[in-house]
Design goal:
heterotrimer; A: mainly alpha; two-stranded antiparallel sheet; B: mainly alpha; Helix Hairpins; elongated
């Protein structure tokens, strides 16, 4: 047994990482739905879920149980194989794209093996291209779901949604070319390191400043690609019943749901890595006191959670919340006390914070913006976004060429 | 690392299957897909030899083949849509007269 | 096969089996959408084989262009034209068996010829530097720049042609 483990160590480590990442991503998805409902509710001057557990924190659990117990009808005349394949495909592709994202540059050294944060090492030569490949295949889940349901609304919604995804995919890939030209590689690690060339600039060395047009195009195209507000006409409730997932109930609908939120997370990761410096700190490198920021955030938050638990009358609120609060505060204390761990945790902390900010922007847009009409949507993608991203590529390459020739002189 | 012949034999098998599908299927779209299968088989042979000889010319040519296949698929499917609209059928055996 | 079953060889056989199963399924399926899905399986298996051969850029382009654009076009057209299950006519049934034999003979002949002569072609050691994006783009923009510009023109012609063809008649 141990000899098998030691000879196939890479395989075992990868399998364990996959299981762990699956668990983490699914939990984050569940709590992302809670987060969205809470934030949208507060934007609309009401409370979100606040009855099921303290602050409604058990709501995702209740939703998951509901999905498991709902009736699961299959429409008559539906192509069974494709009908079952579509949500599987959507979910599998969305989860695969998370596997390609590196969460930190340094590996953990355990039993003599390097364990990278993220399923593959950050040094994949075609990192961003592989991510786009997986995103490109994501159209199939939607198109096949709409078609195989053998019903009018899903077919319309599916065709519209896949046409939208294909149109915005072009703008998505073109808007990233500027960043790739500046970094000189598809490698995600090198893209982040290219933004760290002047560590004393901190936040001003990130790609978003020279590539502000590219960032705008990328973010808008990514929101359209993931079928989120304001581009969610194909699945809007008032327009097309529920679009391509009308005929899907219970668990299959949950699979589409998870796929959509996971692609939201992937897009947020990509935005942070490509334009906002990934795991780099926004402060200049010489300000080493900012390394205590994770602890400074975690310890007060943990204490607040402990104190918040006391105002609940249920046993759950009184026991679990202080427990969670103690864990959070303890984590913050560990970071203060162990400087090695603190240094290691800086990179993932900044990346996760940026991902969180982007997810908040996504949810914020959902609560605030009205949706595009379909012809406005397509006109926007083809007539505005694609020419803008091409202009971005031309200007970026021109500037780089001028710099190369003038710098060489 | 599998030797190059294995890749080329696989390419020949896929090409043969593509030829079979091209000759014996009646749906025009399936025939078109068998053309894509044949092109893919040839791409595999190109990449296998590119790796065996240590040059990248094969891979560059694969990129050109992919681009040409894309252009051909776009125009070909446009023609298929027109024919389907005019003749109301996708069966190649029904489209055997020059005039309706 | 006087060769030990190393991990890359196992992966090769798995991917090759997947590709052949996909191609056979393309032939055997009755509904065009199932044939399209089988072809997508073949494309993905081939992309895996390209990765195994060290051609990472070509593998990514295969999935993006072939799997993510061309096959989506096929799937769209099948959906829009409402292509149904294929009908059977007697003609093809008779020619099926001898046809299959002939195709097997063709493929076998090609394969045997190549196998005999390719024995002398040894798989060169992986030169990851050469097959990287940098190597390929060097070759495209230095040696093959003229065909590259021609293909961009070809794509423009194809886009115009497809747009004109798919228009409804103004009657």
């Amino acid at each position: 047994m141990t000899s098998f483990l030691s000879s196939n160590a890479e395989l075992v480590i990868t399998v364990v990482k996959i299981a762990l990442l699956l668990f983490i991503v699914l939990t984050v998805n569940a709590y992302l739905t809670w987060f969205e409902r809470k934030v949208v509710a507060h934007i609309q001057s009401r409370w979100g879920p606040h009855r099921v557990g303290p602050h409604g924190l058990l709501q995702p659990l209740a939703d998951g149980l509901k999905f498991l117990f709902k009736e699961d009808p299959t429409p008559a005349g539906a192509d069974k194989f494709v009908y079952y394949l579509a949500p599987l495909l959507a979910l599998a592709l969305a989860l695969t794209s998370i596997a390609l994202i590196p969460f930190g540059p340094q590996p953990i050294r355990l039993f003599g093996h390097d364990i990278y944060l993220g399923i593959v090492s950050p040094d994949v030569n075609i990192g961003i291209l592989a991510l786009f490949a997986i995103t490109a295949m994501g159209v199939y889940g939607v198109a096949l779901a709409g078609w195989s349901s053998n019903s009018k609304y899903p077919l319309l919604g599916g065709l519209r949604s896949s046409a939208q995804m294909i149109s915005y995919e072009l703008a998505l890939t073109m808007s990233v070319v500027g960043v790739l030209l500046m970094a000189g590689s598809f490698n995600l690690k090198q893209i982040i390191e290219a933004q760290a060339h002047h560590p004393e600039r901190g936040i001003f060395g990130w790609n978003v400043w020279p590539q502000i047009l590219g960032f705008f195009c990328f973010f808008v195209a990514a929101v359209a690609e993931t079928n989120r507000v304001p581009f969610d006409l194909p699945e809007a409730e008032s327009e097309l019943v529920a679009g391509f997932h009308t005929e899907y109930a219970s668990f299959k609908f949950a699979m589409f749901f998870i796929a959509e939120y996971t692609s939201m997370i992937t897009v947020s990761c990509l935005c942070s890595i490509l334009f906002f410096g990934g795991w780099l700190s926004p402060f200049p490198a010489s300000w080493t006191f900012t390394h205590y920021l994770p602890s400074v955030i975690l310890i007060p938050f943990g204490l607040w959670v402990i104190l918040d638990g006391f105002r609940y009358e249920t046993m759950f609120g009184r026991i679990i919340l202080p427990g969670v609060g103690t864990a959070i505060a303890g984590l913050g204390a560990v970071f203060v006390l162990l400087p090695n761990v603190n240094e290691f945790i800086q990179a993932p902390f900044w990346l996760l914070s940026k991902i969180f900010v982007f997810l908040f922007v996504y949810v914020w847009m959902r609560g605030t913006l009205p949706r595009f009409r379909y012809d406005q949507l397509m006109a926007f993608g083809w007539k505005l976004l694609l020419p803008l991203s091409i202009v971005n590529v031309i200007v970026t390459s021109f500037v780089i060429l001028v710099r190369m020739t003038w710098g060489a002189k | 690392m599998a030797p190059t012949n294995y890749y080329v034999i696989l390419s020949a098998i896929l090409f043969g299957l593509g030829v079979f599908a091209f000759i014996f299927k009646r749906n025009i779209i399936t025939i078109f897909m068998s053309i894509e299968l044949m092109l893919n088989a040839v791409n595999l042979a190109f990449v296998a030899f590119s790796q065996a000889l240590g040059k990248v010319d094969g891979q560059v040519f694969v990129l050109f083949v992919i681009v040409v296949a894309a252009a051909e698929a776009a125009v070909g499917l446009g023609i298929i849509i027109l024919i389907a609209r005019n003749r109301q059928t996708l069966n190649v055996e029904r489209v055997d007269l020059l005039k309706l | 096969m006087g060769r030990e079953m190393t991990a890359p060889l196992v992966v090769f056989f798995v991917l090759a089996a997947l590709a052949v199963i996909g191609a056979v399924s393309l032939i055997l399926q009755k509904h065009p959408i199932h044939s399209a899905l089988s072809l997508i399986v073949v494309m993905v298996a081939l992309a895996g084989l390209y990765l195994l051969l060290g051609a990472e850029f070509v593998a990514a382009v295969q999935i993006i262009v072939y799997g993510g654009a061309i096959m989506v076009l096929f799937v769209f057209v099948i959906m829009l034209l409402n292509a149904g299950v294929e009908e059977h006519t007697n003609l093809s049934k008779m020619a099926g068996a001898p046809g299959l034999l002939l195709v097997v003979a063709l493929a076998g002949f090609v394969a045997a010829t190549i196998a005999k002569s390719a024995e002398s072609v040894h798989a060169a050691p992986q030169t990851g530097e050469l097959a990287s994006t940098l190597g390929i783009s060097n070759m495209i923009f230095k040696d093959f720049v003229y065909p590259f510009e021609l293909t961009s023109f070809l794509i423009l012609v194809a886009v115009l042609g497809a747009t004109v063809l798919a228009q409804r008649e103004k009657s």
